C-alpha cells in the first residue's frame, strides 16, 4: 500500500490527534454491556506479498492465513467484481469466527465514479452476502479526486446498498476534512448507520479525523517500514482503551506496510498488546 508513503518517516509527527468531540457522544449513545469484538488482520494473503510468513509446503495460502488471523481486509474484490461462487469458496476455506472485509469494486467507485451504479452495487452486495456470517463489513473507498461538490452522488449511492448492509466509507480528497464538509459527510453516515474509516498513514495525517459515526471503529493502519511503526501501534492501544471505556463495541483494525512482508509481524505485536490490555485470547501469528 503506497498511499501516504513518505521518504523520511522519521520527520513525521505521528502523534494521534484528539478525538472529534462527536466521537464520545456517539459512543456513549450506543454503549452496551456486550463483549468487545476485535478483528485484526492484514490486507492480503498472497505468498509473494507476505514472503516468509507461510511455512514451507503450504498448499493453500488463505487456509493457513485463517489459522493465524481472525480477519482479512479483502482487496481482491476491488480489482474485480466478485462472483458468488468465489465468495463461497473463500468462505469454506476459513474456520468459524473468521470475518471478511471486502472492498467495494473499483467499477463502482473509480470507473463509474458513482454514476449509474445501482446495478453493480446490487451485484456486489448480492455476491458478498454469500460470506453469510463471515461477512464482517464491506468498505467503499472513494477516488482521491472525488470531492465534496459531488456529495449528492455519494448520498444517492450509499442509499442503494441494501438496508442493514454493513458498510464503511473512506474519503481521501483533502477537501472532505474541512469542518463543514466532514460534518455533512459524518451526519450522512450516522443516519445510514455506516462507519467512517480512520486511516493512519505517514503522508496524510488529515485522514486521522478521529470521528466515529457508530459503535465500531474501522482503522486502516499503514506502517512506514520504520522503527516508529511499533510505537505508533502502542499509541493506538491507549486510544482504543479510551474508546472502549466510552462505549466502543467493535474494532476492525488492518495493518498495511509499504513493503507488506512486515505486516504480519506488526499485526502480531498489536494482537499481543490487545490481548494483554483487554483480556482477549486472539491468536498471535507464528513467526
UniProtKB/TrEMBL annotation:
It comes from the Bacteria. InterPro entries: DUF72, UPF0759_sf. Pfam families: DUF72. This is Uncharacterized conserved protein YecE, DUF72 family. It comes from Flavobacterium caeni.
Amino acid at each position: 500500500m503506497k498511499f501516504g508513503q513518505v521518504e523520511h518517516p522519521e520527520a513525521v509527527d505521528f502523534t494521534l490527534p484528539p478525538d472529534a468531540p462527536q466521537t464520545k457522544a456517539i459512543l456513549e449513545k450506543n454503549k452496551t454491556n456486550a463483549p468487545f469484538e476485535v478483528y485484526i488482520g492484514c490486507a492480503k494473503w498472497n505468498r509473494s506479498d507476505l514472503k516468509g510468513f507461510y511455512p514451507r509446503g503450504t498448499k493453500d495460502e488463505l487456509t493457513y492465513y485463517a489459522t493465524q488471523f481472525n480477519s482479512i481486509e479483502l482487496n481482491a474484490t476491488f480489482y474485480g467484481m466478485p462472483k458468488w461462487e468465489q465468495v463461497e469458496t473463500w468462505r469454506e476455506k476459513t474456520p468459524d469466527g473468521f470475518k471478511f472485509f471486502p472492498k467495494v469494486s473499483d467499477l463502482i467507485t473509480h470507473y463509474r465514479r458513482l454514476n449509474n451504479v445501482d446495478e453493480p452495487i446490487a451485484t456486489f452486495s448480492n455476491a458478498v452476502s454469500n460470506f453469510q456470517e463471515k461477512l464482517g463489513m464491506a468498505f467503499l473507498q472513494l477516488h482521491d479526486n472525488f470531492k465534496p461538490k459531488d456529495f449528492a452522488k455519494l448520498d444517492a449511492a450509499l442509499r442503494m446498498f441494501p438496508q442493514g448492509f454493513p458498510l464503511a466509507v473512506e474519503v481521501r480528497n483533502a477537501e472532505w476534512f474541512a469542518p463543514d464538509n466532514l460534518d455533512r459527510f459524518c451526519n450522512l453516515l450516522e443516519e445510514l448507520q455506516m462507519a467512517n474509516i480512520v486511516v493512519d498513514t505517514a503522508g496524510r495525517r488529515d485522514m486521522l479525523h478521529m470521528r466515529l459515526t457508530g459503535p465500531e471503529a474501522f482503522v486502516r493502519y499503514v506502517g512506514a517500514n520504520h522503527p516508529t511503526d511499533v510505537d505508533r501501534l502502542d499509541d493506538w492501544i491507549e486510544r482504543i482503551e479510551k474508546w472502549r471505556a466510552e462505549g466502543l463495541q467493535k474494532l476492525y483494525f488492518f495493518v498495511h506496510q509499504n513493503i507488506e512482508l512486515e505486516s504480519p509481524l506488526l499485526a502480531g505485536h498489536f494482537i499481543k498488546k490487545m490481548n494483554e490490555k483487554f483480556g482477549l485470547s486472539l491468536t498471535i501469528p507464528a513467526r
